[in-house]
Amino acid sequence: MLYFTRWKALAIILTALVVCLCAVPNFFPEARVKTWPTWAQRRLVLGLDLQGGSYLLLEADSNYIKKEKLDQVRDDVRRALREAKIGYTGLASKGDAVEVRITRDTELQTALTKLRELSQPLGGLMGSNGQRSLEISDAGGGIVRLTVPEAAIADRIRQTIEQSIQIVERRVNELGTVEPLIQRQGQDRILVQVPGLQDPTRLKELIGKTAKMDFRMVDSTVSPEQAQAGRLPPDSELLPSTEPNHPPYVVKKQVLVSGGDLTDAQPGFDQRSGEPVVNFRFNTSGARKFSQATSENVGQPFAIVLDNKVISAPVIREPITGGSGQISGSFTVQAANDLAILLRAGALPAPLTIIEERTVGPGLGQDSIDKGELAAYVGSIMVIVFMLVTYRLFGVFANIAVAINVAMIFGLLSLLNATLTLPGIAGIVLTVGIAVDSNVLIYERIREELRGGRTAISAIDAGFKRALSTILDSNITTFIAAAVLFYIGTGPVRGFAVTLGIGIITTVFTAFTLTRLIVAGWVRWKRPQSVPI
User: Fold this and answer.
1) CB proximity list for 401: less than 8 A, separation 6 or greater
2) How far apart are CA 419 and CA 8, in angstroms?
3) Is the entire prediction scored with pTM above 0.85?
4) Which end of the chain is more exposed for a tag (fewer CB within 10 A), N or C?
5) For residue 266, what are the β-bridge partners?
6) Predicted pLDDT of residue 134
7) Average pLDDT of 440-444?
8) pLDDT exceeds cutoff 70 at 241
9) Per-residue confidence (pLDDT) for residue 491, from 0 to 100
10) Directed axis angle between helix 515-526 and helix 362-415, to 10°?
C-alpha cells in the first residue's frame, strides 16, 4: 500500500495540481479574466444570497389554460364534424365541457364514433392509469357532451409550465445575466432567481408579457366610433393601441400570419427617419403566407397585434415577398430591444402573474459572504489545531491534504461554472470535517496496529489498507444522501448537495490517495523505527 511507481505518483500530483489550478481565475478581476482564452475563463458564480439580485415567483393563469383547452376542443369538434359532413348546431362551451347538437338522429352514432377519436390517453404513449383527455357521452336529445376531466387540465397545466420555463429562460438569458435559476415550483408556479440584477422592473416587464404577436387586416368598413356605438361586425373586434391618446382599431379576427412563424427579430434604426424599429424575418411557411396576404391587400392597412394591442397599422404599399419586414411604433431604443427579445424567445402559452417578489441588495449579500468566510476560517483553524495537537507530524500531513482538498473543490466548482450559495459554503465547511474524519480513521487504525505489536512501517501499511473499506462505506452513504438532496431538493438545497457531493469525491482522493503518497514519501526518506502519532 505504501509503494508507488514513479508514473503513479506523478499522475496523482498532476491531477491535484491541475484541478487546483482551475480555481485560479477566481482570484483575478472578472474584466481581466475575460481577456484570457475561453477555456481559462471558468470561475465560480456567486448565488443570489451572496451577490444580491432579483427573486420572482410566477403563477400561471389556470383559468386561462382551462379556457384555451376548451376552445381547442371546440375547434377540434367543428373540424371533425365538418370532415365527416355531419350536420350540427349549438356548438358551445358549458362549464368543464363542450356540447354540440347533432341535427339528424341517424348521424348521432356516427358523430359519437368520430368524436371519440379526439380522446387520447394522457401521458403520451405510456398512458396515465387509463385516464383520457376527453370523456364523450350522449346527453340525450341529440346532444353530445365532451367533458375535460381534471386530470387532463392538470396535464395541460404541466405542459404549459414546462413550455413557459423554456421561454422565460430564453428571455432572461437575453438580458445577459449570469447563471439565472429558473425552475418549476409546485404544480403551476415558476421560480426565477437572477443574481446581480438589482432592478427587477425590466425583468418583470419582459417576463410578464405573453408576447403573442400576429398580423391581421384592419377592417376599413367601419370606424372605431361606429364600432364603439355597437356596430361592430361579427368577424372583427375592437383592439386598443399601444400609442398614448390614439383611438382603438377595428381589426379582423382572422390571423394572416402568426408570431410563431418568426425565425428572428433584431432591434435597429429606420434608414429614413432614424427611429428605433424591430426588423423581423419569417420562416418559409410564414414568408409564403405574408407574401400572399400583402399581395392581395395592397393599399389596405394591416395591424401588427401584440398581446391584443395594436403596435402599429401601416398601409401595404407593395407586396412584401422577401420574408422579412419592419415594425415601427414610436419605440425607444430599449423598447425596441425588449420587443425583439420577446419575439425571439417566443410567446408564453399562458399569462404569468407575479405573486412574490424580492430584491436582495448587495449589502445583504456581502454580509452573508463575510459571515460565511468567518465560519469557514474558524472551523478550519479549529480542525487544523486539533489535528496538530492530536496527531503531531501526521496531523501536518492531514492538514496539507485538507488544504489541497478545499482547493480541488473550488477548482471543480469553477470548472463546472457552478453557482456558489451560502448553503454551498456550509457544504464546503462540512467537507473539511469529513476529510479530516477519513484521516482520523486511518491514524487510529495505525495506532491499533502499533499496539498490536507491528513495526512502524508495517503498522502504517496495515492502517491504510484496513481503513479503506470503512472510508469508502462512510463516504458512499454520504454521497447517496447528497445525490438524493440534489435530485429532490430545489435552489439552495441543491447548491449544498453539489458542494457536498464534489467534496466527498475529492475527500476520497486526498484523504486516502494523496495522504498515502505523502506518508509513503516520508517513510522512504526517514525509514522510521517509530511512528510520531
Assistant:
1) 435, 439, 510, 511, 514, 515, 518
2) 33
3) no
4) N
5) 279
6) 87
7) 91
8) yes
9) 67
10) 60
Question: Does 509 score more than 50 pLDDT?
Answer: yes
Q: Tens digit of pLDDT for each residue in 372-397?
A: 778 878 888 888 899 999 998 999 99
3-state secondary structure 189-235: EEEEEEECCCCCHHHHHHHHCCCCEEEEEECCCCCHHHHHCCCCCCC
Angle, vertex CA 90, rays to CA 142 and CA 61, nearest 5: 115
Residue 25 near residue 410, CB atoms below 8 Å: no
Give CA–CA dist 196/142, Å, rounded: 62
Share of the chain above pLDDT 70, in %: 94
412 touches 424 (CB < 8 A): no
Judged against a pLDDT cut of 90, whether residue 476 lies above it is answered with yes
Q: For residues 445 and 440, give the distance between their C-alpha atoms in angstroms, rounded to a whole number.
A: 8
Residue among 430, 442, 431 at smallest CA distance from 471: 442
Q: Report d(CA 475, CA 472) in Å as an integer.
A: 5
Q: Is 126 helix (H, G, I), strand (E, B) or coil?
A: helix
- Exposed e or buried b per residue across 50-80, where buried means at least 16 C-beta atoms within 10 angstroms of its C-beta: bbbbbbbbbbbbbeebbeebbeebbebbeeb
Give which of 302, 284, 304, 305 is closest to 293, Cα–Cα.
302
Of 98-102, 148-152, 323-327, which gets the smallest average pLDDT?
323-327
Quote the cell numbers at residue 481.
Answer: 444522501
- pLDDT at 251 > cutoff 80: yes
20 pLDDT band, cuts 50/70/90, is very high
How far apart CA 287 and CA 264 sit, in angstroms, is 12
CA 332 remoteness from chain centre = 30
Burial per residue of 91-124, b for 16 or more beta-carbon CB atoms within 10 angstroms, e otherwise: eebeebbbbbbbeeeebbeebeebbeebeeebee
3-state helix, strand, coil in the chain (%, to 5): 55, 20, 25
Q: How many CB atoms lie within 10 A of CB 306?
A: 22
What is the C-alpha separation between 215 and 223, in angstroms, rounded? 19
Within 10 angstroms of residue 346's Cβ, the number of other Cβ atoms is 18
Average pLDDT taken over every residue of the chain: 84
- Which is nearest to 181 in space by CA: 9, 48, 375? 48
Q: Which residues are 99's β-sheet partners?
A: 92, 145
Q: Does the pLDDT value for residue 198 go beyond 70? A: no
